[in-house]
Amino acid sequence: MNYFVGAIYYVLGRNILAAQSICAVVGAATAPMVYVCAKKVFNNIRVAKFSAIAIALFPSFIIWSSQLMKDGLIIFLLVLAMTMVLQLQEKFGYAAIIVLVLSMFGIMSLRFYIFYMVVAAVVGSFDRYGDYDALHCGRSVVLVIIGVGLTYFGVIRTATVDLDRFGNLEAVQRSRGDLARSAKSGFGAESDVSTTDGAITALPVGLTYLMLAPFPWQMANLRQAITLPEVLIWWMLIPLSLYGLWYTVKNKLRTAFPILIFTITLTLAYSIFQGNVGTAYRQRTQIQVFLFMFIAVGWVLMKEKRENVQLERRRRRELFEASLKGRVGQQLSGGRN
């Protein structure tokens, strides 16, 4: 992030508004990118439109993408990377590989641990076939090219160094403990995630705070109270996300596999790592950007069911009216005779 800001200042001068404006432009570009990504996964215009509009209008995405912060850039790069993975699943292309490598390089530069989750999603999406046919070999070639590209940029070496320094539960515990104790909005300060058993024990509480916080009874000032309408709307949308997730796993698992892998791993990681309500609320957007696609699926399924019910009722009414007119016609003809 420092290099990003430094490059902007070098070109445009030391002007924080210029840097914020670029972040805002990238954040605004996330909405059409979400449209493209959702369209590739579900091949449904309604789902794609709902996903893009939700991302464009949901307050937390507007807040974090309009400031000079990493979150807006990370969200855009995540959606871009997943879109390129989907594109490569459909058709091999050097342009898509280059964009994917650059987006992964950007993700590693901003948050190295997310890079590994993206790698898991990419590898999982391309290496899920037992038969070594031409398609499988082509996807293996894609993985090799991506690996060579990341190695050329020094991404793998840098990420490995960061993983050696921070990629253990003891380091996670130190960071989590600091988050839990450094602000009034901390939670789970008594939890110890330095062991596997401790991490599993802390997972349910962390997951609850990650997906539902901030809770209304925790809002102690006006700034926190402003988030209440958004939180309540988010709570109401969760059943739709579960409905859409169930449909996706049942019918679109092959296509949506990289998004599902990434969303699940990042959710579990943040559930263990996070110890502060404010940070959890901010970084939840990195998960919500894909959950809104599942919410869109749930909304479209419910709307289509409602439309089908209305069509069925209209058809029955028309049949009843037609049969009624037929009976009346028969009675009138019988009376004339």
What order do the SSEs take from the amino end to the carboxyl end, as H and E?
Answer: HHHHHHHHHHHHHHHH
Kindly provide the radius of gyration, computed on alpha-carbon positions and rounded to a whole number of angstroms. 25 Å
> Terminal Cα separation, in Å?
92 Å
Uncertain stretches of 5 or more adjacent residues: 129-136
Individual helix count: 16
Explain this structure:
The protein is mostly helical and 337 residues long. The longest helix is centred in the C-terminal third of the chain and has 52 residues, at 285-336. The protein is globular. The chain has helices spanning 2-12, 16-42, 45-57, 59-65, 70-90, 94-110, 112-126, 134-152, 155-166, 169-181, 196-212, 222-225, 228-251, 253-273, 277-283, 285-336.
Topology:
Elements: H1 2-12, H2 16-42, H3 45-57, H4 59-65, H5 70-90, H6 94-110, H7 112-126, H8 134-152, H9 155-166, H10 169-181, H11 196-212, H12 222-225, H13 228-251, H14 253-273, H15 277-283, H16 285-336
Helix pairs in contact: 2-3, 2-4, 2-5, 3-16, 5-6, 5-7, 5-14, 5-16, 6-7, 6-8, 7-14, 11-14, 13-16, 14-16
Keywords:
single chain; 337 residues; mainly alpha; globular
What's the gist of this structure?
With 337 residues, the protein is mostly helical. It has 16 helices and no strands.
